[in-house]
């Protein structure tokens, strides 16, 4: 959020469609320390007419934003704007509900993270493709099917 050269403003509609509105320059000063409250104040003024602020990571100022502003922070793990907007559209009801709570003066503690499943599925698909193509041992000459896997990529125990 703080080091971005520009902020891109979009409208997101209930049916999942989205529209680019404008590009705004980030005129906030360089941070003197990570999570600088003054920077958050200036940046918040730049997109004061927005309901949702989207970022790639959960920074100290994102936590402050969640606790002290009208903005609903959302973190994305998706690399493209179109993919992010599509996933926001898929999560519209959940995120809209959080925005509505904020408009009624409540401060939900939840910061949705979109794209975790997309990211996980991409990793598993790439691994499964590598397994199917693998020719590093003699098993590849006689196998009928190469079996990949599924499940928690961060599991501490794996059963085979």
Write the layout of secondary structure elements.
Layout (H helix, E strand, L loop, with lengths): L5 E7 L5 E8 L11 H10 L5 E4 L4 H9 L3 E5 L4 H10 L1 H12 L9 E2 L1 H18 L5 H4 L18
Parallel strand pairs: 3-4, 4-5
Antiparallel strand pairs: 1-2
Please sum up the structure shown.
With 160 residues, the chain is of the alpha/beta class. Helix content is 39%, strand content 16%.
Please tell me about this protein's structure:
Helix content is 39%, strand content 16%. 16% of the residues are buried. The protein has 160 residues and is α/β, with parallel strands linked by helices. The radius of gyration is 21 Å and the shape is elongated. The strands form two sheets. The chain has a three-stranded parallel β-sheet. A two-stranded antiparallel ribbon has the order 1-2. It is built from six helices and five strands, in the order ββαβαβααβαα.
Q: Based on DSSP secondary structure assignment, what is the total number of beta strands? A: 5
Structural class assignment: alpha/beta
The percent range for strand residues is 15-25%
Based on CA atoms alone, the radius of gyration comes out at 21 Å
Helix content: 25-40%
The major β-sheet equals: 3 strands, parallel
Inertia-based shape: elongated
How many H/I helices? 6
- Spans of at least 5 consecutive residues whose pLDDT stays below 50 are none
N-to-C order of helices and strands: EEHEHEHHEHH
| Averaged pLDDT | 85
- Give the N-to-C terminal Cα separation: 43 Å
Biggest sheet: strands side by side, in what order? 3-4-5
């Amino acid at each position: 959020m703080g080091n971005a050269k520009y902020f891109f403003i979009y409208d997101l509609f209930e049916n999942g469609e989205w529209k680019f509105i404008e590009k705004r320059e980030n005129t906030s000063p360089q941070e003197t320390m990570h999570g600088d409250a003054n920077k958050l104040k200036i940046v918040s003024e730049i997109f004061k007419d927005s309901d949702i602020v989207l970022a790639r990571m959960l920074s100290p100022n994102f936590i402050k934003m969640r606790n002290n502003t009208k903005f609903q922070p959302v973190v994305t793990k998706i690399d493209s704007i179109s993919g992010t907007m599509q996933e926001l559209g898929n999560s519209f009801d959940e995120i809209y509900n959080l925005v509505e709570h904020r408009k009624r003066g409540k401060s939900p503690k939840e910061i949705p993270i979109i794209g975790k499943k997309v990211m996980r599925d991409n990793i598993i698909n790439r691994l499964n493709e590598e397994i199917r193509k693998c020719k590093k041992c003699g098993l590849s000459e006689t196998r009928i099917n190469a079996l990949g896997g599924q499940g928690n990529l961060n599991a501490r125990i794996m059963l085979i």
